[in-house]
Amino acid sequence: MLPSSPLPPLRLSAPALSGRPGAALTLSTVARLVASGAAVSKADLVPASGLARTTVSTAVDELVDRGLLRLDGTRPTPGRGRPADRLALAARGGHVLLADFGARGAHLAVVDLSQRVLAHEHVDLDVRDGPDTALDVVESRLGALRAEGPPDVPTRAVVIGLPGPVDGHLGIPVRPPIMPGWHAYPVSARLERRFGCPAVLENDVNLRALGEARALPADQAPLLFVKIGTGIGGGLVGREGGLHHGADGAAGDIGHVRVRGAPDEGCVCGNVGCIEAVASAAAIVRRLASEGHAVATIADLRALIARGDAAAVGAVRDAAALIGELVATLVHFYNPARVTIGGSLTASSDDLLAGVRSVVYQRALPLATRNLVLTSSTLGEYAGLAGAAVLGIERVLSADSIGALTAARSPAGARR
Length: 416
Prior knowledge:
This protein is an alpha/beta fold. It has helices at about 25-35, 40-50, 55-65, 130-145, 185-195, 205-215, 275-280, 280-290, 300-305, 310-335, 345-350, 350-365, 365-370, 385-395, 410-415, and strands at about 70-75, 85-90, 95-100, 105-110, 115-125, 155-160, 165, 170-175, 200-205, 225-230, 230-235, 340, 375. The strands form four sheets. It has a five-stranded mixed β-sheet, with helices on both faces. The protein has a four-stranded mixed β-sheet with strand order 11-10-12-13, with helices on both faces. Strands 1-2 form a two-stranded antiparallel ribbon. The longest helix has 25 residues, at about 310-335. The protein is globular.
């Protein structure tokens, strides 16, 4: 088990309201504003939601009666008015289970609807062992983490991120290059059967991008997240704070883009010269091993970098130059406010980030870079869990799902 909560407060989105919103949309908006901490009293909710005072009051009372919101003390109000009731998500409103896969392990967590992390741990696994083996481990450990909490709190959703292309609508991976045996495997359907609730499948880098964006001020979007590890991937968050998936969920799959100057190395996708094949951490390991250096894993590479090994540092700088060319192109195309570089290799080497920055600011035009922030991840290895928490809580509190939160109407019980 890992120590204290790894996640900061995260912004949750609330739908823009116009006209006369239905009851479910009103309840969803109020609940999500409270869950994100953006509004903690009825008085806060009126300007934050754009709803009338009477509408807000009715929605809050209903959510308290349903057991989803609770009264959490009071807070002072300006002037001589009486203190306002502080609102919070009820602890017994439900849990969300999170699993953020990498190639060699997974971060797991249980959160409640107020973003409180109840339990989390890291488990070792290898996605190359296939979906049954990997998911057996994750299901077992998530079940154990959930059992550590109160037994009568329902699980409302499961969110899982995988290191490869996925079809989120069907809940399946789609020909993931580093995950043999996973193509078209019904991941979401399996988890729904196991835990008896909706399961959301997402790409791991998309989760990192979303988590990073929602931990930062809203003006840091659009955001591009580039993960450099066993492979290379990208995630895009739009100005409004939502993920950009593209028409078929393939947006951000940058690992198989070829850049100027890349050698003709074969890639697992069947093409040659892909950025993943020449500049990922795994590619650097292969290069150094072929040159006779004692390196077989990414952990070995990180150890060499930590010792200042000249060959390892040189290989990282070469990779950074190629990645910088790609990022410069993406900066022109997408014009993000922020580019975040994350992954195991970034955490080990300042040379990588410095090299990418150098090329981007040299190659990209001033209009695209004059306000650009290009930096390392603020959440590090927990960015994926943060994104999964956002997706899960927003799913549970969405207008389509909030009606399922059918705790018995009991105002006295709901205020506990």
